[in-house]
Structures are given as structure tokens and as C-alpha cells.
Amino acid sequence: MSKKRKPGASVPRTSNSKYQPSAPSNTMTYVLGGVAILVIAGLVIGGIWWSGRGKGETDQAALASSSTMIVGPETAPLIDVFEDPMCPVCKVFEQQSGPAITKAVTEGKLRVRYHTLHFLDSRSATGDYSSRAAGALACVADEQNTDLFLRFHSALFAAQPPEDGTGNITSPELARMATEQGATPATATCITDNAKVAQAKETAQKSTDELSKATGGQVGTPTVLHDGEPVDGVLEGNAWLDSILGGGNS
């Protein structure tokens, strides 16, 4: 595991407050605010896969190629953000830290690689919402417009359907949402046609593999990596971000 740190950055360690599915037992654990909720018989409430592998070096080239979108200058401190569009804890993370991340990116103080996972597909009415939302983000990312991507990313989590097997947003509705944020008609067609869904699933798997390396097989959302290592406290305010920025995000 790389031990490199950005100057002035003091990065804490892994947090447990995230979505956690366990593939070997089909038992999903959802830990939020220190309260553990055990859900049996394949109900997906959270997001960690236990692969049994030890920690290894993350591949920065693989992290870059598996990201949905990279925003911010190359010279700024770099983080990787892993989320699932259906993950309610990710919505909390976006509400809490999204504005601060956007501000830091806009001011040229932060570089972010966004990774969109899709393990919560089954929690939507159609069984594929996470993948379609990931594909929609990929369509928007093709415009290479940072402000547009960040607006649409935030809008997706604001409109997140309930995670109870009944909630859903159709692809045309996703396209309309993107258009409302300033996306072009071509991007709206890309989303309506689900043109990037297959690609999004492939990059999600690559992102999952790299996250597994960084965490010793524990893959959860939301997770933030800095210099390839997990950051702690991402659901406890924005001190984690201030630490990475050296206190320069106030």
C-alpha cells in the first residue's frame, strides 16, 4: 500500500459507516452512525463484499481508467470517490460533502475521480436503476463539462428513489434531469437509449476490483481513497476533506 501523502495532508483511516453486502453469506450489513442492522436472506441494505484478499497496491492507471469522470486540475490533491446511485448513505455523503468538494474542485484545490458502482440494482423496481444511473453519468461525462457533471451528479442523489424494491426513475426521466442541468440533446438521447449502461457495468467492476485492493477485500459505499488509501470520517463532517486540502477549504 502506498504511504505517500500530499503536503499538509493528514489522512485518517478506514470508516465502517457505509453500505456493506457480504457475498459469501448473502447477509448484508448496514452500519450508519455506529448502529448495525443485520438483514438476512439476500436483502441488500449495504455495500461491502468480503473477497478474502489482503491489502495490495492500488493501480493508479486502473483507477483513472475505471472512473466515470475526473474533475479538477492534475496538480491538486487527488481523491477517488466510490458511490452507488441507490445507496442512501451515499446520498447523505453527497448532501454533507458534495458542496465542499464542488467548491474545492471549482477553486482548483482538488482533483476527484468519481467511480459509480451498481451492486444495489436489485433494490430498484426494475432491477437495474443503479446501472442505468451509472450509464447516465457516463453519458454526461462524455461532454467533458465539469460543472454540468457535478450538477447532474448532485441532482441524481437529490432525486434518489427509495431503496425498498419499488422506487425507480426511468431512463427518459434521467435524460430529462440531465437536460435540466444543461446537458445537450445528444446526451439526453444517450441516456434514454441506455447507450452507456454496458460500459458503466464494466467500469464498475474494474472500480470494485481496485477498491478491494485498497481495503483488503472490503468494498463499500461511500468510500474515499486518497493516494490509494481509505479515508476515515467521511460521514462525520468535512474535516477529512480539510485535512487533505491542508485546511484550505474554509
Quick gist of this model?
Helix content is 38%, strand content 16%. It is an alpha+beta fold and 250 residues long.
Describe this protein's structure.
This protein has helices at 60-65, 88-106, 129-141, 146-158, 171-180, 185-192, 197-215, 239-244; strands at residues 19-22, 27-32, 35-39, 49-50, 69-71, 78-83, 111-116, 218-219, 223-226, 229-230. The chain is an alpha+beta fold and 250 residues long. The radius of gyration is 17 Å and the shape is globular. The protein has a single domain (60-247), classed as 3-Layer(aba) Sandwich (Glutaredoxin). Residues 1-22, 204-228 are annotated as: Disordered.
What is the share of helical residues? 25-40%
**Structural classification:** alpha+beta
Biggest sheet character: 5 strands, mixed
CATH topology: Glutaredoxin
Shape: globular
β content, as a range?
15-25%
Low-confidence stretches: 1-16, 21-54
Distance between the termini: 30 Å
Question: Total helix count?
Answer: 8
Query: How many individual β-strands?
Result: 10
- Helix-strand string: EEEEHEEHEHHHHHEEEH
